[in-house]
Design goal:
This protein has about 100 residues and is α+β, with helices and mostly antiparallel strands. The chain has helices spanning about 25, 30-40, 85-90; strands spanning about 5-10, 50-55, 65-70, 75.
Length: about 100
């Protein structure tokens, strides 16, 4: 089993029945997941970063929400435009993106 350096959880408002609807979904969370997948692939980080879409974290007013483990960093109000900065600064550079921290 591969142990990634980072595991990203992105709220896409996925419900138990598999239907995606809700705040984060409505604000482009699926596009955020896609942007992370592309950015990770472009930077050849696929062996170091795992991405999982999730259901609601319960803080919809901060959504879309992205959580980075193992350190448990929570980012809020994330857009697809923020993905490159998160990957470059946090995942590659080890520096959290302060303006997005919850």
């Amino acid at each position: 089993m591969v142990t990634p350096k980072y595991h990203l959880f992105v709220c896409t408002s996925c419900r138990i029945n598999g239907v995606q609807k809700g705040f984060c979904y409505g604000k482009g969370a699926v596009d955020i997941v896609q942007a992370f997948m592309e950015e990770i692939d472009d930077r050849d980080l696929s062996s170091e970063v795992m991405i999982t879409n999730t259901g609601c974290f319960g803080i919809c007013d901060k959504g879309p929400v992205v959580v980075v483990y193992p350190e448990g960093t929570w980012y809020g109000n994330v857009t697809a435009d923020d993905v490159e900065e998160i990957v470059e600064s946090h995942l590659e550079g080890g520096k959290k993106v302060e303006r997005l921290l919850i």
